[in-house]
Amino acid sequence: MKKILVSTLFTAGMLFTQAQAQSVQKDSIKVEKTFKNSFDTQVLKDAFMDAASKESWRVTGDTPQKLSLEKNFSQKRKYYNHAVNRGQRRIIHETVNLNVSLAESGFSMNLTLKDKDSKIAEEAQQSLEDLQSKVYTNLVKTTL
User: Fold this and answer.
1) pLDDT in tens, 23-53
2) What total of structural domains would you count in the chain?
3) Distances (CA, A) of 105 to 35, 39, 40, 101, 143
4) Domain range enclosing 73
5) Does the UniProt entry include the keyword Signal (predicted)?
6) Residue 20 within a domain
7) How many helices (H) and strands (E) does the chain have?
8) pTM of the model
């Protein structure tokens, strides 16, 4: 009887740790752009900083070759699975991280998400595209 109980507890513990590991895993979206012309990394960095301020991204890390940005997103959901929360709307907040690597020939962006298929991920991807267009606009303005 003790052997069965111990093996059952061990199996349950293993499944629990696997479930925890899966919930911690995050999805990411990677964007890489290269230019025909080369830009100074400071020019690219200034373009990203200006675009980030216009698109409400906060700068959390700043080195000569890398930038770390973050932005908060929220999503309204209904929960029907529990009697206490049935029919109530809950707001889910998520902070999305964006790591930008700068080089003279281009840049690479890595967007870290908790769930790649959520509405927050769609909003974050749209915000990423808006950020890219603002960066391109800033580069055109500064180089002409």
Assistant:
1) 334 577 787 877 777 778 888 899 999 999 9
2) 1
3) 6, 7, 9, 11, 15
4) 26-143
5) yes
6) no
7) 3, 5
8) 0.70
